[in-house]
Amino acid sequence: xxxxxxxxxxxxxxxxxxxxxxxxxxxxxxxxxxxxxxxxxxxxxxxxxxxxxxxxxxxxxxxxxxxxxxxxxxxxxxxxxxxxxxxxxxxxxxxxxxxxxxxxxxxxxxxxxxxxxxxxxxxxxxxxxxxxxxxxxxxxxxxxxxxxxxxxxxxxxxxxxxxxxxxxxxxxxxxxxxxxxxxxxxxxxxxxxxxxxxxxxxxxxxxxxxxxxxxxxxxxxxxxxxxxxxxxxxxxxxxxxxxxxxxxxxxxxxxxxxxxxxxxxxxxxxxxxxxxxxxxxxxxxxxxxxxxxxxxxxxxxxxxxxxxxxxxxxxxxxxxxxxxxx
Length: 326
Description:
2 domains; 43% helix; globular; 12 helices; 20% strand; six-stranded mixed β-sheet; three-stranded antiparallel β-sheet; D-Maltodextrin-Binding Protein, domain 2; alpha/beta
């Protein structure tokens, strides 16, 4: 847990009402089960984080937190449900790069404003991606891959989990920074895209490091770089994009938000629960096993992360002419 985050929470509790905390109001919440809306299908990264966090946070708050998968519209339907929910802390959004940044950056019109209509509670964790190639691609380093792509413009294809997905946007970011041109092949999910990469149907992909390692160990793919700001512990020999000479980085962040207008005492209670949760060694170890790096950023710090992420993907979408019309 970051000391600065804990200090910020303490100041919030003390200043919630005339310089004093409000034990009576805060202790009244929660008095019934809470719903955590995952606006994407079960089985993905957002769902995994949402279920692990909901189980532990509910235990600490003394009320069950029920995960409600509301997939559809690329995350828009579930996100809209939370945006329009009663702002009382009993309906929360499990957000990710898709809901927090990519959708607001790419959709021509959304039924909500992701900054105005939500109160960020806390970032929970992040995961980088790994830039990987099929072994039929001769390049063994990022430098070699960029040189190969420049001599074969428009002939290299890459798979993704669909238009506007994290792999799509990540490779668009890398392509723009490297000055290369590749062909996007969208699939209906990351599973089919990864299968196509292993089969050699597509040449390039972005997958999480825990997915990349066993595939690389089996000889099916080759890992070129990781997209985060530091090397990934499970594959320490693989450099970051920046170390390999490309001055960009990107991570996928996961966190909790509530509808705008949720009382500060309720938000403070949720934040305190998250601070306590992040001291649970078993939970942190489990998240680490699944590839997530814990990153506690409360309230405004989480909002700042979302705003920065949103601006990055807005620029990438504009440069690569990626839009989702609705």
